[in-house]
Write a structure and sequence with these properties.
Pfam families: Cu_bind_like. It is built from four helices and eight strands. By secondary structure, the chain is an alpha/beta fold. The protein has a single domain, classed as Immunoglobulin-like. Strands 2-8-7-4-5 form a five-stranded mixed β-sheet. It has a three-stranded mixed β-sheet with strand order 1-3-6, with no helix packed on it.
């Protein structure tokens, strides 16, 4: 009986795990990190960001920071008057929680205005899961078929 429960648990984990682990962590600037003299718009141009993905900003503490701003703040490299959006750990992870444009700048010295240390991205909603074939009521994904078979076998054993 214990092996049947373990098999069912494994089948459930295999069905649920892919939906949990689909988020992507983007290392901003790749191996260069968050620094001056890097083209972040070029870095981001071919990437598709989704809700649930994370941006990872790596930099030397005290030399740089990360500030979330709005569109005008991004265009003008304006540092907000409150410090609630300033991140300064050297390893800042921002989980993208909502779709739309997101803007980030460095607020140190003139890193944004003179050195272009700023990033704008567009975050898309989470892609919907493949829908079942409504004409026949069957699952269309091969992975979903495999998982359904595993669950069915677990229930029969």
């Amino acid at each position: 009986m214990a092996s049947n429960n373990l098999f069912v648990l494994l089948a459930v984990v295999l069905v649920v795990l892919p939906t949990v682990t689909m988020a992507t962590d983007y290392l901003v600037g790749d191996s260069s990190g968050w620094t001056v003299g890097f083209d972040y718009q070029n870095w981001a141009k071919d990437k598709v960001f989704h809700v649930g993905d994370s941006l990872v900003f790596n930099y030397t503490v005290g030399v740089h920071n990360v500030i979330k701003v709005d569109g005008p703040g991004f265009a003008n490299c304006t540092i907000p008057s409150d410090n609630s959006n300033v991140l300064a750990s050297g390893h800042d992870v921002i989980t993208l929680a909502a779709p739309g444009k997101k803007w980030y700048i460095c607020g140190k010295l003139k890193h944004c205005a003179e050195h272009g240390q700023k990033l704008v991205i567009n975050v898309e909603a989470v892609a919907p899961a493949p829908a079942p074939n409504s004409a026949y009521g069957i699952v269309t994904s091969a992975f979903q078929v495999l998982m359904a078979a595993i669950v069915a076998l677990a229930l029969l054993v």
